[in-house]
Amino acid sequence: MRSVLIAAGFGLIISILLTPLAIRAFRRQGLGQEIRDDGPESHLSKKGTPTMGGTVIVGATVGGYFAAHLFLMSRPGWGFTATGLMLLFLMVGMGTVGFLDDYLKIRHRRSLGLNKTAKLVGQLLVGVAFAVMAINFPNTDGVTPASTFVSYVRDMAPFALGAVGFVILAYLFIAGFSNAVNLTDGLDGLAAGSSAMVFASYVFISFWQFTHDCANELIIGCYTARDPLDVTLIAAAGMGACLGFLWWNTSPARIFMGDTGSLALGGLISGLAIVTRTELLLVVLGGLFVAVTLSVVIQVAFFRATRRRVFRMAPLHHHFEKKGWQEPTIVIRFWIIAMVLALVGLSTLKLR
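Predicted structure:
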């Protein structure tokens, strides 16, 4: 348990201390956010705010994870694991795609960076590489980081996908949630705070799996998961990194995470779901991200069919801005929704 606190604590400290340094450095380099012309008028004042703060979130998560392992090095048998390193690969890889997107936005001084094809190709390469590795590298008990079964709180035996089916589903899952967090990152602190709640859920889930691991004690209700403690460390480090960044990202934000942060966070969240065998449960735990994405899908589909709009503006949080809600009000209420959904998801885990 102490190692989990170390991971979370170092993630928080690194993030909260490095973010102001990043703000000054990015401001000197002119790395300011470009604002979409058709967005809410209140966002025009945010133009020029330093962006690419996601580099700090990624660095703090990696730093928190390695700091926890420095503590664990004194214990025999507790080294780096394939699952932990794969999750870091997924986060850093998705963050790199986002970094390229942010860099092109700043370089060309427009709110569009990588085109859709280039972004999807980047997500495809990282997502597929992670999925392929995740169904390899078995431990001494033959357990791989991921399973080829569809899972809710554990594998659903009748729903076997096979290797190819799993890789396709994992890619869609990773790309879907990374883009969902990206869409949610439209108000100060919204994506960082909501992501912290999902990470907190996975700290509980993976640590519960660690204490009820079938490899340690074969009892009713035990879990078959590879390296659950290492997964806990990464989830804790990610939670701490988001909370530290949130200190500087709440309204009025002094820095934005950019696509660097949102794609990295979405990738890591989906990776945590895959290695803990809780893919379908993430739809509940991350229900806010799902709702925001659905608002865009509904808006586009309805407009193409009828030339009319369901929402005043999509994604969903901008609809409430157009209705006159203040930004902090929207963020806090969405945080409450995210917290309730996380608690609902955890309660279903406990009931199962």
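Summary: The mean pLDDT is 89.
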